[in-house]
């Protein structure tokens, strides 16, 4: 991942700079939710892969939806 890193990598990887034992405990205490979100993320990545391979118009539509979702999130005060 570091080879793909841009300016946001520092913020995205902040958890990795913490205490490994404490981070393990945090992950284990939230195991079900973390696994659920990882599975959702993997499903999204698979869909983007499919779109990139097979469906240029669908990819554009997915990226437009992502842009709209980010704009809504930003307008809700998340900067």
Automatic annotation (TrEMBL):
Domain Prephenate dehydrogenase dimerization, chain residue ranges per copy: 2-63
Pfam families named among the record's database cross-references: PDH_C
A Gene Ontology biological process term: tyrosine biosynthetic process
Parts forming coiled coils: 42-76
GO MF entry, a single one: prephenate dehydrogenase (NAD+) activity
Keywords recorded for this protein, A-Z: Coiled coil, Oxidoreductase
Protein name (database record): Prephenate dehydrogenase dimerization domain-containing protein
Organism: marine sediment metagenome
């Amino acid at each position: 991942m570091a080879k793909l890193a841009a300016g946001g990598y520092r913020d995205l990887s902040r958890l990795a700079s913490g205490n490994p034992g404490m981070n393990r405990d945090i992950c284990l205490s939230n195991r079900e939710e973390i696994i659920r979100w990882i599975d959702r993320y993997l499903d999204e990545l698979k869909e983007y892969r499919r779109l990139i391979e097979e469906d240029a118009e669908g990819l554009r539509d997915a990226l437009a939806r992502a842009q709209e979702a980010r704009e809504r999130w930003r307008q809700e005060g998340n900067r």
